[in-house]
Amino acid sequence: MQNINTIWIIICGCFVFFMQAGFICYEVGFVQSKNVIFVAIENLLTFMITTVGFCLFGFPLMFGNTYHGIIGNSFWFFRGVSEASPLGYSFIFFQLMFAATAVTIFAGSMSERAKLLPLQMAAFISAVFIFPVYGHWVWGGLFLKQDTWLSGLGFIDFAGATVVHTTAGFIALAGSIVVGRRIKTKNGKSNIPFAVLGVFILWFAWFGFNGGSILAFNDKVGLILLNTNLAASSGMLGALTMNMLLRRKGGFLISIFNGVLGGLVAITADSYYLGPIAALAIGFLSGMTVDLSRHLLDKWGIDDAVGAVPIHLFGGLSGTLLLPFFMNAEYLHTGNRIRQFFIQFLGLSVNFFWAFGVAFLMFKIIDKSVGLRVTMEEEEKGLNIVEFSDIYSWEKYIEISGYETEIKQKNDLLRKQARLLTVTEEQEKTKLARDLHDGVGQSLAALKLILGMTKKQLLTSDAQPKQEKLLKNTEKAVVLAENSIDEIRNVLNNLKPEQLKENGLTGGLEAMTKDLNEMGDLSCSLKIMKPIPPFDEIITLNIYRIIQEALTNIVKHAEAQNVVILAGAIGKYDFYDFQITDDGIGFNSENGEYGVGIPSMSDRVKMLGGQFKIDSKEGKGTRVVVEVPID
After folding, report:
1. Residues 97, 13: contact at Cβ < 8 Å?
2. How open is the CA angle 491-495-497, to the nearest 5 degrees?
3. What is the CA radius of gyration of the chain?
4. Using CA atoms, how far apart are residues 164 and 126, in angstroms rounded to an integer?
5. 624: helix, coil or strand?
6. What distance in Å separates the CA atoms of residue 6 and residue 212, rounded to the nearest whole number?
7. Which tens digit of pLDDT belongs to each residue from 517-540?
8. At what angle do helices 597-607 and 405-435 cross, to 10 degrees?
9. What's phi and psi for 572, nearest 5 deg?
10. How far apart (Å, rounded) are the C-alpha atoms in residues 432 and 438?
11. What does the pLDDT read at residue 602?
């Protein structure tokens, strides 16, 4: 009988080892093609480091003779293993596969932006310290018959929903927070068939995960395997239900994957202690929880490349906390479901403070010392190139970045410039028509009227009065003609401001300020806090028109005495700002009731890709803020 148990544990250990292939397929299915080599090699190196580190250091800490139920301290370098338990080296092999699973999980969540060396450092620390210490608190009596502090309180975790999966989930959460979000690039696509293959491999390997945790081959194995399969299937159904309830557009496939794996993680805590119907219920509820958690993590801005946190952390939390309410009463360690629930909650709380706390500190130290994340340029290239100098990836990157990306950028720029030019021309035509109508048109109409009156007077009046009236009307006509000429010059100057052409936007604004001051009724000052960028001709003209429109509104409506043009004061990254502030009568800007000028300014700013804001209150003046992209 002993030989059968040992053979069963070894077979199940091989099943769990096969999870590594499942993790690689699953991760490769989600990461971009420029990072798939890195993911595969990183998983291989992580398994190597975990094997050496856990066997030499982690296993003694996890399963050695306990020190006050806190830490193990024996079996160093395999000494005394065969004498301590009939399972001997088979047990080490089986538990090593669990440790490798926990360590592999968190690395996947940080894919596509974390460096190779820091990930291996984190893998070693997790394998020899974070995972074994918490594992000792829960499972320290599995190899040697001894009590450790959490198991002594009655905490239950049959096959590692907490020891393996929430521990890995908390480490993944800490790493994802410290390393930050990925930049959004389109260099490569995900491979859904690979992800599906990974799910099936993990599903298959999970039978060893749960089936071997009984550490014997007996009549309970069939129930454990059935419960495992039922929870995976109902987990998929639960995740799809949550996806439908959230009415999310897309994400259908991700819900399927998360539901299956989340159900498997949840039942890992429970498969020995409950019947098939309870397994279906736990799988369904866990699938819903996992899919909801994915939605919340996206909302909170936590970037998990492969969904490790929703699947392993929230799946493990669900299975561990639901267990007291669905397990057969004969298996309760505390004799009471509510008390068992609080013990389960305590175990998870301890897991959070230990795994997340130590991991967060670990990643912070690694980030400050050797650097956790690759640069933005390296992330765009892909880690296949950055870490392994893969020739095929280099060729692909050069092809994409050197041709498609460049052409796309040029086309986008040309389209943007064409739209900008078209709108600018239309607005300039509108302005020209308004200037001609309001200025030159009115003057010429008055001139025509005066000349008509002069002609009529000449026909009806005596000679002497005729001459006097003719002289007065002629003088008026001359004045109007001069005004018309000045108006035409102004219109022509507005069409192509000379100062703007010769001295750029800075010169144009200085000339505009000078002209405004020469009117005598308004004091205008220009303050340039940092040099105005060399915008191209079209953008320069649009900015000039925006400020000109703002000043025109002040002259016509504000009844202001002072106005200040402030340039470059805010200093926002990649933007340059202009602020026009007056001390006039102001108006209520909150009601949104504007004339033609303000919407025109806003349209121009939006056309430039900038931001427009107007702040005014009655009796307290007005401030117009224009922010324009530098690039």
Report:
1. yes
2. 100
3. 38
4. 11
5. strand
6. 10
7. 887 778 999 999 888 888 887 788
8. 160
9. -70, 140
10. 10
11. 83
User: How far apart are alpha carbons 278 and 25 in whole angstroms?
Assistant: 31
> What is the spatial distance between Cα 203 and Cα 196, in angstroms, rounded to a whole number?
11
CA distance 288 to 179: 28
Closest by Cα among 149, 166, 154, 158 to 340? 154
146-194 residue pLDDT tens: 999 999 999 999 999 999 999 999 999 999 999 998 886 544 456 888 8
Which secondary-structure segment (H or E) carries 576?
strand 575-582
Distances (CA, A) of 526 to 18, 282, 436, 547: 71, 69, 29, 12
pTM value surpassing 0.90: no
What are 230's two structure tokens? Answer: 């039922």
The answer to whether 319 and 270 have CB atoms below 8 angstroms apart is: yes
CB atoms < 10 A from the CB of 310, how many?
30
Residues 138-172 as b or e (16 or more Cβ within 10 Å = b): bbbbbbeebebbbbebbbbbbbbbbbbbbbbbbbb
CA angle 107, 109, 113 (to 5 degrees): 85
Residue 55: what are its φ and ψ, rounded to 5°? Answer: -65, -40
Q: Which amino acid is at 18?
A: F
* Phi, psi values for residue 533, rounded to 5°: -60, 155
Q: What is the pLDDT of residues 605-622, one digit of tens each?
A: 887 888 888 888 888 899
In this predicted structure, what is the pLDDT of residue 192?
A: 85
DSSP class of residue 373? Answer: B
Least confident of 88-97, 119-128, 257-266, 603-612: 603-612
* Tally of CB atoms within 10 A around 482: 11
